[in-house]
User: Fold this.
Amino acid sequence: MIKNNESVVEITPRNIKYYNNKQYICNIGDFITVDISTMPKMSHNLVITICEICFTENTLMFSKYNRNKDRQGFYSCKKCSGHKRKVTVKNKYGVEYISQTEERRISACKWMTSDEFKATSKNTQIDKYGCLYVQTDDHREMISNITKERVNYLKEKGDYNCVLSQMGNKEKREKGMFDKYGATYSFNVPEIKEKIENTKNINRNIKIEQGYESIIDDTIYNSIEFKFYQNKVRYKTNLLRNRLFELWNGIDYYDGEFIKNNLTLHHNDGSYPTIDHKISCFHGFTHNISVDIIASFDNLCITKRKVNGRKGHKLHFVS
Ligand SMILES: [Zn+2]
Assistant:
């Protein structure tokens, strides 16, 4: 409800005609008290509202008051609106949330698992997106945003438990893999191995198209000499790690995004800041560049783990 059913209105050149027509005697610049029944429903004039559940008073635009009231038939403040929804649904269906109605739950469940639904849904998606919706960038972005929001929310509450670090997770994953494929590690399953190889090849081809040079010889990558070189680079890089992070401005070297706050993420998270070598370790090795240069301060930068991973160790940019 609205206190005294009234609102104080400033008379301006824009509204004077309206209120004169409503029989108010006033001049531009006057503040007059008007009965809310004479105000347009979408008026931005302020009114003092009284919550019909907790009786708290608030100042609100008349239009917002009306929208709130129209939704459920009575007005309630923000704090009580959750309560209000429950009351309304409970009166109507006898439960607190609509989705709890057994009938609805069962019918939705039946429909969503039916072959007919799956077929229709698939066709609609392919018509609309040219592929399944889950394969679109929109979907991926949406999921990523939802996940980020959820993780932030859980972190704020202090409830965040990264899936990867949960107790028993490794065992569960391994058991799941074994039940499904008869092997614990994906690389021991021929069909998965093939899939991984295919993806690698596709990624490699994309990189080559984008101007990256392909290092075809995997034997170099797998050689002991390279591993030795790589270990030395890692060791020397590590010595500079603290200083690098200390002097870092928080910006991702490759895409300019501010990612310093991502240090609170789990270190396996794709957005976690990691050290990268601008000239890759592999390039350094194959071009006889000394470890000291590859692991030098000037060759180090910080980027998101996923960017680092995407760059690939066997490829480097030809500039
Ligand atoms: Zn209230």
